[in-house]
Structures are given as structure tokens and as C-alpha cells.
TrEMBL record:
Region (Disordered) location: 148-171
CDD domains linked: NAT_SF (cd04301)
Xref: PANTHER family: AMINOALKYLPHOSPHONATE N-ACETYLTRANSFERASE-RELATED-RELATED
Protein name, as recorded: Ribosomal-protein-alanine N-acetyltransferase
Keyword annotations from UniProtKB, A to Z: Acyltransferase, Transferase
Top-rank lineage group of the source organism: Bacteria
Domain N-acetyltransferase, chain residue ranges per copy: 3-153
């Protein structure tokens, strides 16, 4: 299945609400007004995944927080149509969110249900570690959530040296 990742538009909200109700029926699915508010936030980036026909099969959002000196990001949501689970769409959406966050730098945080093993495994594969537990985080179900953090991925600084020249060692 060919998937395109694109910025979310206001016209996508109805489909997001439909997917929320399918995916999170026990945990207060987001209504349209929540998506409208998120899209209006200048610090938020929301994306959609579309199949070859243009149908939205997933969505995701991240908040870019902090300032230039102390940036951080928080994944707000990732949702994939149940008919498309296990097709790599969640991975594509997460990687697109992490790319957005990576342009600013800093750590990335998220909450995930403690019983959502596939999501926890996906996040761990992308460098997230459990740093806390939020009891009864999801309402009204009362499900617990792990808080996970991916540390800032700092690239190595460029090294000015001739090719095949050994690194200097200082002691």
C-alpha cells in the first residue's frame, strides 16, 4: 500500500473524529473541537497518512514546546485505521513527527497506555524509554499510562581532518 504523509487540514477533522471513536471508545475520544484547537496552535504539527486513493488512514500530532535554548516536544496522538493496522503506517507517522521535533532538537515525550504493547514496542524501537507511570491517566476507563522519553539525538560535530588520518588522543 502506497502511503503519503501530509499536513492535516481542517477538512480532515471529521475523519479524525470517526477514527478516534473506533480507536479509543473507552477513553474519551477527541471531539472535532479538540482537533480544531490543536490545528490552531502555532506550536503544533498535525499530519495525516493517506492511501493511494487519497483516503485518510491515519493521523498524528506533536507539540513543539520550549524555546530555542531548551526545546522539547510532546507526541499528542497517533491513530491508524484498524483496517490498516500492522502495515507500517504508525511507524511512518511517528517518524514524521520525530523529524518535525528533530528540526528543533531536544527530548521528545509521550504517554501510552500500559496495556498497549505494540505501541510501547514501536516507541522503544525509536529510542523512547519509560520514565514514569501515570495512574488512571486515561478517562473514563481509568487505564494507566507510561510516560516515555526519547533523549535529544545530538549529531556528532564535524571533524576537520584529512581522510584516513587517525583521531588524536589526548590524555
Amino acid at each position: 500500500m502506497a502511503i503519503r504523509i501530509e499536513p492535516m487540514r481542517l477538512t480532515d477533522i471529521e475523519r479524525c473524529v470517526e477514527l478516534e471513536q473506533l480507536l479509543f471508545p473507552e477513553d474519551d475520544p477527541w471531539p472535532a473541537v479538540s482537533f480544531q484547537s490543536e490545528l490552531a496552535g502555532s506550536h503544533n504539527r498535525y499530519l495525516t497518512a493517506r492511501d493511494e486513493s487519497g483516503r485518510m488512514v491515519g493521523y498524528a500530532g506533536v507539540a513543539l514546546l520550549g524555546d530555542a535554548e531548551h526545546p522539547e516536544a510532546e507526541v499528542h496522538t497517533i491513530g491508524v485505521d484498524p483496517d490498516c493496522h500492522r502495515a507500517g503506517i504508525g511507524t511512518m507517522l511517528l517518524e514524521a513527527l520525530l523529524a518535525e521535533a528533530g528540526r528543533r532538537g531536544g527530548p521528545v515525550f509521550l504517554e501510552v497506555r500500559t496495556d498497549n504493547a505494540p505501541a510501547i514496542a514501536l516507541y522503544a524501537k525509536h529510542g523512547f524509554h519509560i520514565i514514569g507511570l501515570r495512574k488512571s491517566y486515561y478517562q473514563p476507563s481509568g487505564a494507566d499510562a507510561y510516560t516515555m522519553r526519547r533523549p535529544e539525538l545530538t549529531p556528532f560535530p564535524p571533524v576537520d581532518r584529512a581522510p584516513n588520518q587517525p583521531d588524536e588522543v589526548h590524555s
